[in-house]
Amino acid sequence: MRQILPIDLPWIPGHEFSGIVEQIGSDVATYAPGDAVFGTTSGMGAYAEHLVVKAAAIARKPSNLSFEEAASVPVAAQTAWQGIFTHGHLEKKQTILIHAGTGAVGAYAVQLASHAGATVIATASGDDEAYVKSIGASRVIDYREAQFEKVLREKVDVVFDLVGGDTQKRSFLVLKEGGHLVSAVQPVSQEEAAMHHVSGVMMRLAPSGDVLGRIGRLLEEGTIRPDVATVYALQDAAQAWKDIAGNLPGVHGMSPEPGAARRKSHGKIVLRVA
Ligand SMILES: NC(=O)c1ccc[n+]([C@@H]2O[C@H](COP(=O)([O-])OP(=O)(O)OC[C@H]3O[C@@H](n4cnc5c(N)ncnc54)[C@H](OP(=O)(O)O)[C@@H]3O)[C@@H](O)[C@H]2O)c1
Fold first, then answer.
1. Residue closest by Cα to atom 12 of ligand 1
2. 69: three-class secondary structure by DSSP
3. Between the CA of residue 30 and those of 54, 57, 65, 116, 209, what are the distances in Å?
4. What is the pLDDT of residues 104-119, one digit of tens each?
5. In 6-29, which positions are buried (b, 16+ CB within 10 angstroms) versus exposed (e)?
6. How much is the pTM?
7. Is the CB of 167 under 6 A from ligand 1?
8. What is the CA(238)–ligand 1 centre distance, in A?
């Protein structure tokens, strides 16, 4: 990790949060002390009771969400928004294939694309078919059982890749000419993109209070919903990481107990700051 995320210890993790404004800078006009907000930090530091953030990276907390629910939204929902709309140029009546429709980002992508009037096809485990359909997918392809490029009957306008590797490579085969392959996980081969007459881009989240505000309105009106799997107290953060690692196969140095069941629930893990 040191090569991609160099840090100086001591270091505070956490990239997203929800809370109440305590003080504002002299040039901030949009927020006042007492406002409930949510957003992203410019570095890390969200595992904390206090943090300092740019006003441009936050938005008002949707009033129908708890702080825990709101804190679970910013990174995944904005990544989904920018992946499918900013980079994928998804439009009404188009078809999008979302790889990993059950993940944190994928579940927002499914909801936002479906709300935008697109036809949504998602890859997911067969066990999760009902869940992914319940949030807006019209078709779910079980990635453990079938190769999506073999079972898709028609080509799609956009692929949103949250898996990478071979899944990304095979995605070129299902894109229409002029389509967009957007990956949030690894660079896209420009040679292959040119060969298939599509665009290919690896996106990186560019947090925006404006986008988050629009997402906030969709949450407030109930068009999309957050998904919180578990809430831990701030002082149990280390245990939360151990529990996450315990459910992932073969995480270095923290392999699951033999026979441990894999986590089947969906949603984010949130720390509650008293
Ligand atoms: N570029 C950026 O700015 C940015 C921002 C946020 C996230 N990301 C990246 O985006 C990726 C997704 O993030 P996340 O938070 O949504 O992850 P997540 O919540 O851990 O979800 C990962 C999902 O991938 C599914 N999956 C695994 N292999 C698959 C396959 N071959 N085909 C289809 N689905 C598969 C898993 O399903 P099962 O339950 O079946 O295992 C799981 O639901 C991560 O790599 C993350 O680092 C990038």
1. 162
2. helix
3. 12, 12, 21, 28, 11
4. 999 999 999 999 999 9
5. eeeeeeeebbbbbbebeeeeeeee
6. 0.94
7. yes
8. 22
